[in-house]
């Protein structure tokens, strides 16, 4: 029994060591993973690939929650934040809960990606955008590939 408790202690120490060995730069970079996953998920959704949209949403939520919790816990230095965290994300970190903050970030990332595809593709009035679903889908597929979205894990 003593060997078992020693093993349990060593396992716990190893897991704490791994968790604490993640640098503040690595924790700050989670913000980029989160934001890119949310944008890429929007491209996937606009392309008609719901499975990929769901996968990317889950990746973004995991990275984002870890990032927001690290921010709340003071585990990201100002230097790492300035170097790695997108400015748009910094402005969205206030809120009563992690999920509230995540919702704000998701909404902005999704809107940015949507606007890039829809507003960037058309130089005419919004009332005519709906008539060009095939163009929207094609542009979203192209942006998904150009952004290397498949590499987001």
Structural class: mainly alpha
Described by the principal axes of the CA atoms, the overall outline is: elongated
The amount of beta strand, in percent, is under 5%
> How many separate helices?
7
Characterize the largest beta sheet: strand count, sense, and whether it forms a barrel. none
| Tally of DSSP β-strands | 0
CA-based gyration radius: 19 Å
Q: Segments where pLDDT lies below 50 for 5+ residues?
A: 1-21
Q: Quote the distance from N terminus to C terminus.
A: 40 Å
Number of domains: 1
H and E string: HHHHHHH
Name the helicity range. over 70%
Overall average pLDDT = 84
Question: How would you describe the overall organization of this protein?
Answer:
- It is elongated, with a radius of gyration of 19 Å.
- Mean pLDDT is 84; it is low at 1-21.
- The protein has one domain.
- Helix 2 (24-47) packs parallel to helix 4 (78-84).
- The protein has helices spanning 2-21, 24-47, 50-72, 78-84, 87-90, 98-121, 133-146.
- It is mainly alpha-helical and 153 residues long.
Write the layout of secondary structure elements.
Elements: H1 2-21, H2 24-47, H3 50-72, H4 78-84, H5 87-90, H6 98-121, H7 133-146
Helix pairs in contact: 2-3, 2-4, 2-6, 2-7, 3-6
């Amino acid at each position: 029994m003593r060997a078992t408790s020693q093993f349990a202690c060593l396992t716990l120490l190893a897991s704490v060591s791994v968790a604490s060995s993640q640098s503040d730069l690595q924790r700050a970079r989670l913000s980029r993973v989160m934001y890119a996953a949310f944008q890429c998920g929007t491209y996937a959704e606009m392309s008609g690939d719901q499975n990929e949209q769901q996968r990317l949403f889950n990746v973004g939520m995991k990275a984002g929650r870890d990032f927001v919790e690290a921010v709340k816990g003071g585990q990201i230095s100002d230097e790492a934040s300035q170097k790695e965290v997108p400015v748009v994300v910094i402005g969205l970190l206030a809120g009563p809960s992690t999920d509230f903050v995540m919702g704000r970030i998701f909404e902005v990332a999704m809107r940015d990606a949507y606007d890039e595809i829809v507003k960037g593709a058309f130089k005419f009035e919004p009332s005519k955008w709906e008539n060009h679903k095939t163009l929207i889908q094609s542009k979203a597929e192209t942006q998904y590939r150009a952004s290397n979205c498949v590499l987001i894990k």
